[in-house]
Amino acid sequence: MIAVPAQVHIREMTLQDLPEVLEIDQASFPVPWPERSYRFELIENPAAQLFVAESSDDSESQVVGFIGYWLIGDEVHISTFAIHPDYRMQGIGELMLVRALRTARASGAAVATLEVRVSNWPAIHLYEKLGFEQVGKRAGYYRDNGEDALLMTLHSLREGVEQ
Ligand SMILES: CC(C)(COP(=O)(O)OP(=O)(O)OC[C@H]1O[C@@H](n2cnc3c(N)ncnc32)[C@H](O)[C@@H]1OP(=O)(O)O)[C@@H](O)C(=O)NCCC(=O)NCCS
Predict the structure, then answer these.
(1) Residue 2 within any structural domain of the chain
(2) 100 CB less than 6 Å from ligand 1?
(3) Which residues contact 49 (CB under 8 A, 6 or more apart)?
(4) Does the residue 154 lie in any domain?
(5) CA dihedral defined by 117, 121, 125, 127, rounded to 10 degrees?
(6) What pLDDT sits at residue 157?
(7) Which atom of ligand 1 is nearest to the CA of 114?
(8) How far is residue 138's CA from residue 146's CA, in Å, rounded to a whole number?
(9) Does this model's pTM top 0.90?
(10) What domain range is 156 assigned to?
């Protein structure tokens, strides 16, 4: 059971979300995606799916996180994923990842893969909590600091997202 703020819901990302998405991306990653990458994913890449988490009350709503994946054959690959720094550790990331994996599974995915910086313990804990396993490393994968990427795989998508 994931305890998240009741007013948070997940929906598909649109072009209108990009200013807020870019702000979260820039606050979350040393090498954020440029706007043109999001536009390409949203408009031109048939393999891509992108979702946002939106927090709303009576007067306003705010994008507080996003996640993207590519679905190629029966493999879903997490392409991007971040929660606004002020909204972390409230269960929103887990909710988003589970929702993305369930959607991918409904579209035919059987296995999930991703890369994560070896130093990124918050993300690695989340992935392991959902059943991802460390299956390898890509040496020097991240160009900004030469950090290694950990390759993680969820072999049985069903087990990881039946919550
Ligand atoms: C990784 C990230 C998306 C997690 O989002 P979040 O909403 O804070 O995560 P949740 O609150 O849903 O936490 C779910 C689980 O993740 C793990 N986790 C999250 N933050 C953690 C932290 N700071 N330390 C250790 N474990 C953490 C825990 O296992 C947690 O489950 P638990 O609370 O039952 O122990 C968020 O930290 C983030 O945006 N980081 C910067 C961007 C990033 O690294 N993206 C991933 C790139 S691969």
Answers:
(1) no
(2) no
(3) 12, 68, 69, 70, 71, 100, 103, 104
(4) yes
(5) -10
(6) 83
(7) 48
(8) 10
(9) yes
(10) 8-161
Residue 116 confidence (pLDDT): 98
Is 3 inside a domain boundary? no
pLDDT tens by residue, 80-104:
999 999 999 999 999 999 999 999 9
Task: Give the pLDDT confidence score for residue 156 in this predicted structure.
Answer: 83
CA 163 to chain centre: 18
Q: Which of 126, 130, 138, 151 to mutate to test the pocket of ligand 1 (most atoms within 8 A of CB)?
A: 126
Contact between 40 and 1 under an 8 Å Cβ cutoff? The reply is no
Q: Is the CB of residue 123 below 6 angstroms from any atom belonging to ligand 1?
A: yes
Atom number of ligand 1 nearest to Cα 89: 11
Q: What is the CATH number of the domain that holds 79?
A: 3.40.630.30
Cβ–Cβ under 8 Å, residues 5 and 90: yes
